[in-house]
Amino acid sequence: MALFNFRREAAAPAPNAPAEMEAFLKGFSIEVMPRTAEKVESFRDILPAGTRVYIAHIDGTPIEDMVATARRLNAEGFPVMPHFPARIIKDKATLTDWVARYRGEADVKQGLILAGGVAQPVGDFHTSMQLLESGAFDGFERLHVAGHPEGNKDIDPDGSDKMVMEAARWKSAFAERTDAKMAMATQFCFEADPVIAWVDRLKSEGIALPVHIGVAGPAKLQTLIKFAIACGVGPSLRVLQKRAMDVTKLLLPYEPTEFVGALAAHKAKNPDFGIEAVHFFPLGGIKTNATWTTENGGASGRPANA
Predict the structure, then answer these.
(1) Which burial class, exposed, middle or buried, applies to 210 when counting CB atoms under 10 A from its CB (0-12, 13-18, 19+)?
(2) Residue 8 in domain
(3) CA dist., res. 162 & res. 151, Å (int)
(4) Distance separating alpha carbons of residues 108 and 111, to the nearest angstrom
(5) What is the pTM of this model?
(6) If exposure means fewest CB atoms within 10 Å of the residue's CB, which of 91, 112, 116, 154 is most exposed?
(7) For residue 305, is pLDDT > 50?
(8) Where do runs of H (alpha helix) occur along 141-283?
């Protein structure tokens, strides 16, 4: 399948993409790791100019590799948002050093602040709130925090979402006293109705953070199930399990068309609905994800408020 070359020709909406999908995908972001970014010869060839690129910081990845990836993406014209996982940051000095490197060497002005997936903190930090309160991110233009539409058993072992929602309320209040733009970037999901209910619940509880909904990009079904289980994806995992039982679909790659389409239709009918953007986890490969997004209308560039 040929890839769209954004360096040679202006990005244009896919001719067959519904207008609501194009509007919903406008300003999408995507996530990479240093080792996956190395496999991409040129991000300009596959992503619209100005696409926000998150850089996932997996435990054990040297900060030098993270900064080098951020520097490269910035040089290619993409605003970068590295992860800052609290539980892998030893102390305030380490955090300050990382921020200084990102800002000085890669002109980073955005960050995703999260607790991180490791069970045991390596040092002083164990929550994203501690990082936000540290003052290390003063001067950043945008700060995103993690969201959990299906809860998080690391935070709420009893299966409720009590602590998750308390943290969301704290982060929303923090957003009101910072100059940085803030949003909640979520784990990937596969079912629209629970996501819609969760976003509406945030609003009803006074949590004003706009949502950047996590979406798993096209991938083999086995790959998605493996990642979903590893990442603690909950109720919507049944969508994949049901698909796995259908022999007509078992060998076909999963595409998020139905999920994204349902959310796009809901947003079109409810303009005040709290999802502001889509964030892709390219579990089947960055180029594959970028091609699907382009073919479904996501080639229009960043929205004005980004």
Answers:
(1) middle
(2) no
(3) 9
(4) 8
(5) 0.87
(6) 91
(7) yes
(8) 162-176, 192-204, 221-230, 237-244, 257-269
